[in-house]
Design a protein that fits this description.
Distance between the termini of chain B: 12 Å
Structural class of chain A: alpha/beta
Oligomer: heterodimer
Helix content of chain A: 25-40%
CATH superfamily of chain B: ACP-like
CATH topology of chain B: Non-ribosomal Peptide Synthetase Peptidyl Carrier Protein, Chain A
Radius of gyration of chain A: 24 Å
Low-confidence stretches of chain A: none
CATH architecture of the largest domain in chain A: 3-Layer(aba) Sandwich
Largest sheet of chain B: none
Number of strands of chain A: 27
Low-confidence stretches of chain B: none
Mean pLDDT of chain B: 92
CATH class of the largest domain in chain A: Alpha Beta
CATH superfamily of the largest domain in chain A: Thiolase/Chalcone synthase
Shape of chain A: globular
Distance between the termini of chain A: 42 Å
Largest interface: A-B, 22 and 17 residues
Helix content of chain B: 55-70%
Strand content of chain A: 15-25%
Number of domains of chain B: 1
Mean pLDDT of chain A: 96
Number of helices of chain A: 20
Radius of gyration of chain B: 12 Å
CATH architecture of chain B: Orthogonal Bundle
Amino acid sequence: MRIWVTGIGVVSPLGRGAGVTMDRLLAGDRAFGELSLFNLPEMRTRLAAEVPGLSAAEVAPEGDAEAWSRTDAMSVLAVREALAQAGVAPEAAPIDLIVGGTTAGMYETEDLLAELSRDADAIKPLRAMLTHPLSSTADHVRAAVGPFRRVRSVCSACSSGANALLLAAAWIRAGVSRCVVAGGADGLCRLTYTGFGALSAVDPNPCRPFDKRRAGLNLGEGAAFLVVEPEEASRARGVTRPIAELVGWGVGAEAHHITNPEREGRTAARVMQAALTRARLSPADIDHVNAHGTATPLNDSMEAAAIRACFGPEAERVPVSSVKGQIGHTLGAAGAIEAAVSVMTIARGEIPPTMGLEEVDPACPLAHATRATKADVRAVMSNSFGFGGTDTSLVFAAPNAFPAPEAPARRSVVVVSAATIGPLGVLGARENDAYLEPGPAPSPGPIHFQAADHLDVGRARRLDRAGRLSTVAIQRALRDAGLDPSDPSIGAEVGAILGAAFGSVDGSTAFMRRIYEKGVKFASPADFPNLVPSSPVGHASIYLGLRGPVFAVADLGVTAECAVVTAADLIAVGEGEVLAAGSVEEASPMIERCLGPVCSGEAHGVRSEGASAILLEAEPHARARGMKPIARLPWWTSWRGAGEGALDAAPEPPTRAVVLTGQEDLPPGLRLPEAWARIPHRAVAPRSGVHEGAGGFAMAAALAAIARGELDAALVVGHAPERGYALLLTADEPGSS
Amino acid sequence: MDPADVRQKLKELMVTELNLEGKEPADIDDAAPLFGAGLGLDSLDALQLAMSVEEKFGVRVPEGDEARSIFASVNALADHIVRAKAAA
């Protein structure tokens, strides 16, 4: 089963369009200039690679530009270009959409957040905040371009765009997608600009990847999307040849440090090797490495060590280059832009140069391409590494250059544990049905949580509250499964997919306020890494030693359901064996009074907070290590829009079954199949409180009831405006306890 | 500025700014190395500490090789602050 790339769209600081971007990369043009988007007093540098002349108004509906972002604009333009080249349209056929990113509409909302936070009483729903959640980019692409079917927003910091493509590959290999447009987008904003500055990671001059005198990165912005399809689907609609093929991918976490990469590049090498293995290629088959190459001292020497470790003697031959010397580091877009460039490198037979590299650092001994080079390029590896040590490598190949891989056998997914931390404390796999018992509503606001009761606070000192709540939930789920991630006898790396509807709103607000009140030089280096949406799960991976796939998802009030469904999608096709999935939501006046009512529609009931972690495993893997699952996950789905007909394919309920939701209501447009409409409907919100992660508590409650033999099945349904998820959890052996 | 007073303030600052939970300022050895084996701090802590020293004492800590000797210990950092204040 070949995965064809049939369309590319790019908006970069070098131009609008994939073709013009590649032309200028090959010409050696550098896009750095004086920052025009914003000015903050006492900035040490004003260098950046902006996309010139771009505004949200270009793509927003007439009169609604205040609720759209520049990130939206770049995404919409790049998605349109990719779809047009592929010759597909979401109105005509089901197309899925995956957007990687880190900041979404931060540029448009960061001032407003700081302003609103000055007076808690003044916090109110503002339409301009619609563009704040990470999921808003995908929502706006859908609104502007067409009715994409399945939609996901993923974040793993600077590898987000690459992980969007990895998830697209998983969907295609699972046979659930016939066309996916996947990529990443990130607009420049004050928060990332000052944050990387605070980390002393920014070179005030144009950056020098792999150079002896390199002094940090330059920030850029942009978007790139690729249309990927299974060969059969593409041929069926008349396409005879792709631009290239997506043939390999690997993902893993370093579990090392929130900002610093492993010095020796052990995980990066492992992930690169995993991508080669998936592609069934050897280092000798790779004709070019499109490096992450940020030009920070630590990244480039780590990456060079990793390339040498993975490629062995072939490292002397394979040309390596980084586009960051020309367009800067585009963060969540970088992995997607570099994937697009890799595809064009194959299609054009010309390798782009590393600009800014004059004297190769002896610590980076590679075959650096310092000028554009014509070559017969059959396969390219593209590397992306993010904060928290989230490493991803992709491999693209020329059409039909290598034998077609087999489609994988689909594996059953089971649940081996679940845990929550919420108003009822930390509850394990067989305890969460407490959220289904009658009892008092929780107290509004933050839950009681003493980190020292659950964590070694010396080791957890860098973790903010969201990081700690996430870590405690995953830790408890692992403990109840008797699973130690560092135990080699597990035979697989444990991963985690966990996000928050709105990311670190209060943290971002405090970070910006400090800058406005004290000046740019007092931006907190320690706080900045905690503001990326993948920070809580990244911290959890470091604390707990999780080295499998680690990233965040965000989807308003169904983020926990989104995480579990995404984990199941990956496990089903062999992109993970054991994955914790869930969400973390913090009580915050900004969420309660502004973002919740505007974005997720969560406005009624007692607002609380909490984290959930559901531990999923491939059934063959669980059985092989003698693990008895607490439940099975035989069926799951998701939808956009009203959800008409979305549950029609749900299997029939057994005798003792319930429909379970986080919030108390079922979506008005959703029709339960007749057999499910007859059985009881229960909700956890009266005990868990209302928050965007309540669905995680519903899943955990269902699992505990099933584990204790009180239930045979639960259909967990989660919904938020224009979207929903449903999962069927069933007893491993119905009727037994 | 009294060096003893600066050392005390510095250690209080470290406990709060670097989230050294479970540690008291008195637990920090004035002569012990801050990084690596000693307190176990790293480069991200160094950046946070440099920022907060400038905020609290109005003294800039230079970057690069010069910073290495200044960040050697509480004593060395306090000396730098006292010297910089005296020169101002």
